[in-house]
Design brief:
single chain, alpha/beta, 7-stranded mixed beta sheet, globular
């Protein structure tokens, strides 16, 4: 129910709303010490009305940061590839679901995320405890479990619109809190 409501609100955003928020989100995210000092950042390419990430990806790359982007595997796990600029992105349709922009070129394997100093996670909401509500596919739950098993502790950051920081989201035993959320109006930390 919460997911459906959040997606409905996002679907009413104009391209101008999304672009305007993306510029502010990139500016705010780039000020985070976790991203300022990162050598490798695992991120994602936003699609549709998701909070925009392309400006942030390009700014990180311009700083000399190695940016890893996901490629969805048939079992909903994520492989990773290097982002070398907008020209490296290809539109991939996964069954009846939405088309995603994924990096063309060499696949680095699901474990590549363990090299990241920071991981930008997609989400629909985050609550006052730092618990993230995703789209429900479980891809990023697998990523977070993989990081935990490996003893990796990158900064976990979600980019959202202001109204998507809520009092409480449903939580399952495997869910892990994020460390920060960046919205157009500011940054909120959870650790």
């Amino acid at each position: 129910m919460l997911r459906r409501g959040l997606l409905s609100v996002r679907s009413r955003l104009t391209a101008g709303d999304v672009d305007e928020a993306a510029a502010v989100l990139a500016e705010r995210a780039l000020e985070l010490p976790e991203l300022e000092h990162a050598r490798t950042v695992a991120a994602y390419v936003s699609v549709g009305p998701e909070p925009g990430t392309l400006a942030l990806l390009d700014a990180l790359r311009a700083r000399g940061v190695r940016v890893l982007l996901p490629a969805l595997l048939p079992d909903n796990d994520l492989d990773w590839g290097a982002y070398t600029g907008p020209d490296c992105l290809v539109r991939v349709r996964h069954g009846s679901r939405m088309a995603l922009l994924e990096p063309a070129g060499e696949r680095l394997g699901p474990e590549a995320v363990q090299q990241a100093d920071a991981v930008l996670l997609p989400g629909l909401a985050v609550d006052a405890r730092g618990m993230r509500l995703g789209r429900g596919g479980g891809s990023y739950d697998r990523v977070l479990a993989r990081l935990e098993r490996a003893g990796a502790d990158p900064a976990l950051v979600v980019l959202l619109y202001d109204a998507e920081v809520v009092e409480r989201v449903p939580e399952e035993a495997h869910d892990r809190p994020v460390h920060a959320v960046v919205t157009p109006s500011g940054v909120r930390r959870f650790r």
